[in-house]
Amino acid sequence: MPRKVVSGPDYDDDYDDYDEYDDDYVEYDDTEYDNDQHPVKTVKESSKKPASMVPVHWACSMCTFNNHESMTYCEMCGVFRETFVKSAKDGSLKDAVSAVSSEPRASAMPKADSAKTPMKTRAVDSDGDSARKHANMSCDKANSTQLPSSGSSLGAEKKKKTPVLSEEIPVERTALLVPDHFQLKGDHSGGASSSSQNDYVTQKLSSDISQLNVDKTNVNVTKPCLPEEYKPEKWMLADQESGVLSQLNLAIVGHVDSGKSTLSGRLLHLLGRISRKDMHKNEKESKEKGKGSFAFAWAMDESSEERERGVTMTVGVAYLETKKYRVVLLDSPGHKDFVPNMISGATQADAAILVVDASTGSFEAGMDGEGGKSVGQTKEHAQLIRSFGVEQLVVAVNKMDAVAYSKERFEFIKLQLGSFLRSCNFKDSAIAWIPLSAVENQNLIKPPSDARLTSWYQGFCLLDAIDSLQLPSRDVTKPLILPICDVIKSQSTGQLAAFGKLETGAIQNGSKVLVLPCGLEATVKSIERDTNPCSIARAGDNVAVNLQGIDGNQLIPGGVLCHPGFPVAVANHLELKILVLDITIPILVGSQVEFHIHHVKEAARVTKIIALLDKTGKPSKSVPRFLKSKQNAVVQVMLDGAVCVQEFSKNRALGRAYLRSSGRTIAVGVVNRVIGQDEN
Predict the structure, then answer these.
(1) DSSP conformation letters of 29-88
(2) Which of the ends of the chain has fewer CB neighbours closer than 10 A, N or C?
């Protein structure tokens, strides 16, 4: 479970030695109290103290430190005891101050000599000057610290006790309870204080204490940092004159066996990102296993399990450069069993390539599923990509060689898929249609050479279509947010590093970051972009961040690196605004779902259906009992575990959510409100 971000109280270094608490500690027997007598002092001795004796303490309402009954302020943080403040407000402090000031020992003692008198408290065991130092420090803290309100549990005692001080405690101890401007003024000549002087001191002390801001509404509480208060430093702003290519995060999505990995591997090979040695090795090994056509796909599918099964299981990351961009390829799995992995990786995308198999029967399976009984991954991936916020799409109609580069087949696919993409709110102007063949290297990085294709197509090749994409806006003026996609081993240091895309802000070597959900601060030791070290990374960059000052086990996929002054919420109770997709079983209150957000998933249940939304977003007056296909609604969900999350209005990357059930995506939406934070 996540720990609290807020740390505990800041204790003074001089009190780190806990042995001081055992030396000459004074305890009072609560059975010896009487209306006219002071409590009887008993020195702590385990051999003489009865087993049933329990010391009387009161807990500070600010730091919960247990103080002795005789103390009127907290020895740890300096906050006044609540009954002491209340008695000052209603005038009942007069008797207590008069009793203290009229004691012969205390009043006759000159103030200059009082510091030399040994007091049987832990503060003077070490040094009298140290006691004065810490007492004054406590008084300073009391002036700036919120006092407990009169309505608290401590103030609800049926019998209010007047503060009584022991005979053994000199006046200086009492004087140190309050600041200098209302300290008790005894007779320095050594005589007893007059009654008129006591009355004046009592009135002044009561009036000064009553002027303290006891009301909660008047307490000067530091406001939490707001994003609009954040001001970026100069180094965070992008250098337009550096000449470095802009980074474009490009997701490769589509139905299983549509040729996504083969297309990615062929692009990398043509652009010189795969060496001849590695390519020869892949060709040899794929032929030995009877999968010669998988040679280019194995450039992306590197694990033995992926190669054995012949399907991509996790999101593969590769890098290439075009004339305009430094492209990060996110090769996503197409099999329906690995859609959660696709969601985790493709959420980083700025744009996407939707790969479609033009073969007869394969395109139809990607649209309607096996036998037309379910939704294929072509449809599901298109819906998910749009819900990620991707607005620009390149539709790569692959395997055109299998249909003899037929124009009719291409137009049929464009008509069928185009109408569905428009229903997903893709604009026609933001969609590029590219016929190609990855195996035969047609229309990838240069215009096609096959006459069957050039006879009717004269448009962009795939590489030119990538360069035609526009970068989304990068917000470096907001606080740092870096969702952790994966935890990898750094190639430069060999240590665990957090890998992900900077959504907002910037980061450099030496920056302080807050690691969530563990709530620990760390320092950036090094940054890697495309396996190359760099000193600064800005919003939009995919980087591996190596941290120091934290155990690598605290870094988990689904966590977040953020600015220490602007922490991300960690919550398990959320309100969502969702769009229900094509479902056969309605969504009910209590429905168990799989909740996905950025790079993490959690088991969850729908706890409340608040309202349906019409096309304008206006909620309905009646509360529905269930949700069905194509409905927009506001619901509440409770997660089994807390996740790092933000409202969509504050941060889009941490505010997009997806609900899945029975291996299918049943709803997509955004976080409307964070209801509850998990503080365990």
Answers:
(1) -GGG--SSSPPPEEE--TTTS-TT----EEE-TTT--EEETT-SB-TTT-PBPHHHHHHH
(2) C
